Amino acid sequence: MPATMPAPAKGAAKPSPAATATGKVGTADVTVNYSSPGVKGRKIFGGLETYGKVWRAGANEATTVEFSKAVMVEGKALPAGKYGFFVIPAESGQWTAIFNKVPNQWGAFKYDEKQDALRVMVTPRKTAAVTERLAYEVTPKALVLRWENIELPVAIK
Question: How much is the pTM?
Fold first, then answer.
C-alpha cells in the first residue's frame, strides 16, 4: 500500500472484500480466491480496465485458481496446482484467459508472461443485468467471471 494512503481502520469494511468460489469439475476440486470490487457507477471494461492490457481479474492481490487434479481448459491440458489468474479484455472478439505459475503476487504489476502455464482464448457474453460486485462461479463445466455487463465462461473438463 502506498505510504500516502492510510491503512483501513481496523474492522472497517474493505472496498473490495476477499471472496472465494469453490466447486467441482469432474473429480477435480476448484477454488478461486479473489477480491471483489464494485462497479460503483464506473465504466469497467474499456474504462477502469483497459482493453489489451493484462488485468489481475479482481482487486488487490492477483486472483488465484487452484485445481486439485489436472484439468482440460478450453481443450488444453493444465496440471493440478495453484495459479495466478489474469485476463486480457478485448474491445471486440475473444478475450485471453491466463493461468500463471506465480499465484501470489500483488495485482499484475510484476506479471511475467514467461511464467504462464496456459493461455486460452474465451468468448465474453453481454449480460442482461449488471453484476455490481465482481463474482466468480465454478460450475460443473466452467469457471465463470461476472462483472459489470460481462460474463466470461472458461470451459473446464
Answer: 0.88
